[in-house]
From TrEMBL:
Domain Bacterial bifunctional deaminase-reductase C-terminal: 3-173
Gene3D superfamilies: Dihydrofolate Reductase, subunit A
SUPFAM superfamilies in alphabetical order: Dihydrofolate reductase-like
A Gene Ontology molecular function term of the record: 5-amino-6-(5-phosphoribosylamino)uracil reductase activity
GO biological process per UniProt: riboflavin biosynthetic process
Source species taxonomy: Bacteria, Bacillati, Actinomycetota, Actinomycetes, Kitasatosporales
One Pfam entry name: RibD_C
Name used for this protein in its record: Bacterial bifunctional deaminase-reductase C-terminal domain-containing protein
Organism: Streptomyces fradiae ATCC 10745 = DSM 40063
Amino acid sequence: MAKVYTTASMSLDGYVSGPGETGFDRLFAWYGNGDVAVETAHPELALRLTEVSAAYWRRVASETGALVVGRKLFDLTEGWGGTHPLGVPVVVVTHTLPDGWPREGAPFHFVTDGGTRGVERAVALARELAGGKDVAVNAGTIARQCLDAGLVDEVGVDLVPVLLGGGTPFFAGLRGAPYELEGPVSLAEGDRVTHLRYRVRYA
């Protein structure tokens, strides 16, 4: 059965970015520390992973049919140039449409409702677009809102052995916490990263 999941590369002290949006070179070093070339749908992004991480990446990519992201990530990546590396439709939760969007031929969809209604609509649309595959929700505010709305089935962590000492935590300000997690339901040990997946148990 198709799932809704959120996942992120996270430091050992729980951050998905360091102070002032730093630390990404360390959090994503595993994208380039192996000998296995992995192509993505984005022509300018090719990964070099270890065998374990490559198998993990390919499995996740094959099972994922759509993404839900926030406006902050969309702006930081400049909309991935119109093509997300996974090559799947992207639903962006935003208060206002970004200039120049939507674009013809770019599979990006925008939901401008705020709060819980917005993430509920975004996830519902992503499920339709995913064609029976899983839906990924990017970490941060959107993931927290989806968890509190009971929409997330699994939480993934690409655990990186670095201490950032501050920054943006994977989860903060959860209204429904504590949440019990079952598992890990999957585990893969790469080089300087451990890929974990847990199932969310709602009360």
